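G., the chain you wanted modeled:
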Amino acid sequence: MIDSITLDNILPRAFAGMENDEPVKTSQVWLKRISFSRPGFYMVEAESGAGKSSMCSFIYGSRGDYSGDIFFDGRSVRQIGTDEWCRLRQRAIAYLPQELMLFPELTVMDNIEIKNRLTRINPSAGFSRPSRLWESRRKPQCLPDNSRWASNSVWR
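Predicted structure as tokens:
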């Protein structure tokens, strides 16, 4: 279980050298120290290309092309090995990219429920609020880029 996620002065390498330009200059995430704590719900909203999906990929550990550091409960994610990342992804954190289409004819929530049945995860506490928004959309790719859940990071 992860109780807090802290982003400390992170910046995608793609934005290096652009610290005084958009989208970095006015960002409330890039080059700042921010924390997300349970049981909070957080909305990440930004224009297309500002790095929402990159931020989620950094937190999920699927990309490391950033400067700064990310901490789970005060521990740098750079200290996490492959086996531990696998355990975290099974039990503590998940990432649903906006372009994900496991079964495009199903809703996002239906796709998540299939994954949870296969991995024996009980989502009853963690998915009640987002599911209302997701159920209103037929396919994951239909979410607008500036939607509350456009870059879906699902934290169990």
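The helical segments are 52-60, 82-91, 108-119, 128-135.

Shout if anything looks off.
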